[in-house]
Amino acid sequence: MAEVMVTVMPFTGHVTPVLQAVEALRGAGHRVRVYCGSRFAAQAAATGATPVVWRHAPDFDERDLRATFPRAGRPGPRGALANLEHVFVRTAALQAQDLREEWERRPWDVLVADSLSLGGALVSERLGTPWATVSVVPLALPSRDLPPPGLPLAPGRGRLGRARDAALRGAVRVASGRLRRALRQTRAAAGLDPAAVRLDDQWFSPFLVMALGIPGLEPERTDLPAHVHFVGAFPPGGDAALPPGWEPALRARRPVVHVTQGTFGTDPDDLLRPAIAGLGGRSLTVAATTGVVGRDALPFAVPDGVLIAARVPYARLLQLTDVMVTNGGWGGVLAALRHGIPLVVAGRDLDKPAIAGMVARSGAGIDLRTGRPSPEAVAAAVDRVLTEPSFAQHARRLADQLNAHDTAGEVVRLVGQLVADGARVVREASPWAA
Questions:
Q1: Residues 91 and 118 grouped into a single domain
Q2: Which range in 151-165, 268-282, 352-366 is most confidently predicted, on average pLDDT?
Q3: Are residues 52 and 197 in the same domain?
Q4: Is there a single domain that holds both residue 277 and residue 204?
Q5: What's the CA angle centered on 213, arms 212 and 217, to 5 degrees?
Q6: What is the SS3 assignment for 171?
Q7: Helix 12-27 vs helix 330-338: angle between axes, to the nearest 10 degrees?
Q8: Which of 51, 173, 284, 329 is the most buried (most CB within 10 A)?
Q9: What's the whole-model pTM score?
Q10: Residue 346 is part of which domain span?
């Protein structure tokens, strides 16, 4: 039995898969603590782990980022950079302080960090202890073979394409100068050499990276580090009953379209309103979730027959879904594909436009190329996905790859190997090797 510290940023999309990893580690007999925001402490405790809440670090609520970080919470590229700087980077030294105090109270054998939880990376470097990354968003490791992470672009082909990608990588380095300065200041505040680790490398353990996803969704690269392991996706939770009236409606003899904006960036005008306007009143069953606990209605008229709820048991819903219309959250995309469900993606900001591009290039869905599509665009995309068999065929192909993984078992095995080997790289052959 090992003593494990798990760190996770207090966002629902991060906490949900990380707590599934915690349940797996607890099931294997490990003693686990979870460093998270106070809003998620009860969920962490429900796994049998011991929650450790943010104390020195600002304990914020994802539903109102600007209450704690006035410069964050805005849409668009500048907003994404502000989120990274103020929410993820500039809180990391205080996260590390919390964790250092917890270490002094009771040391751990290994730390497992959400890929955007920099406090775990900093305290592990300071203590010289082994740590692992769980990448709960698409793998954002830069590569000489690819455009910069986060851009919705296919890898360039030929000399001109490779030159384009190299130029873009240089441009991103310039554009992220403020973020790099913030990291240097944060490292100094944590008692570390400000220049010892580059921004691109700071997010990932040098010993073990467990990436949610599969190579079938990733562009091939020749320089993937040997300690990166794709582990598939945890099964979506929730086998409780659906809301009253949903089950018979979803089982009616017509296609079911699930519409979701995930749990972050939940302005219903972005996707719910145009999707419902485009799909409502047609020979479809539209099942929409607002993503906000307590928001079981929408602030606009909804056609008869459209089902609305804050959240629903996903495992049950996806068994009955034919197409998902989504803003591109990674967890929701993987959950749909795990069920072989093709997608229509409207990615607005953060990593979502890049995820939309990944889905489109895989053949398993359509990228609407905007986060606020027209009703006509949503309806036309859903019609294509329902009538062209290739989308469902590609979604089933990816489902086979995802379901070939025992994600919980792989996390337990890999973390156990890191504990046994100490500060040694947990290696795997390239997933694209012949």
A1: yes
A2: 352-366
A3: yes
A4: no
A5: 155
A6: helix
A7: 60
A8: 329
A9: 0.92
A10: 246-403
Alpha-helical (H) ranges within 280-369 are 314-318, 330-338, 352-362
Q: How many domains does the chain have?
A: 2
How far, CA to CA in Å, does 307 sit from each of 100, 248, 381?
47, 12, 20
Distance CA 279, CA 346 (A): 15
Residues 306 and 392 in one domain: yes
Does residue 131 sit in the same domain as residue 258? no
Burial class (CB in 10 A: 0-12, 13-18, 19+), 107: exposed
Whether residue 79 lies inside any domain: the answer is yes
Place of tokens 């460093």: 35
The band of 434, judged by pLDDT with boundaries at 50, 70 and 90, is very low
Number of other residues whose CB lies within 10 A of the CB of residue 154: 15
Indicate the Cα dihedral angle 328, 330, 331, 335, nearest 10°: 70
* Helices 375-387 + 389-403 axis angle, to 10: 80
Residue 151 has a pLDDT of 79
- Pair 258, 321: CB distance under 8 Å: yes
- Residues 387-401, mean pLDDT to the nearest whole number: 96
Report the largest interatomic distance among the alpha carbons of the chain, rounded to a whole angstrom. 63
- Helix segments in 176-271, DSSP class H: 177-189, 199-202, 246-250
| Bridge partners of residue 210, in order along the sequence | 134, 229
Range from 84-98, 165-179, 256-270, 403-417 carrying the lowest mean pLDDT = 256-270
CATH of the domain at 138: 3.40.50.2000
431, part of any domain = no
What is the per-residue pLDDT for 76? 66
Would residue 21 count as lying in a domain?
yes
Q: Could you read off the pLDDT of 214-246 as tens digits, one per residue? A: 998 988 889 999 999 999 999 887 667 888 888
Does some domain include residue 433?
A: no
The reply to whether 125 and 45 lie within a common domain is yes
Is the domain of 360 the same as that of 258? Answer: yes
Indicate whether 53 and 191 sit together in one domain: yes
Rounded mean pLDDT of the chain? 90
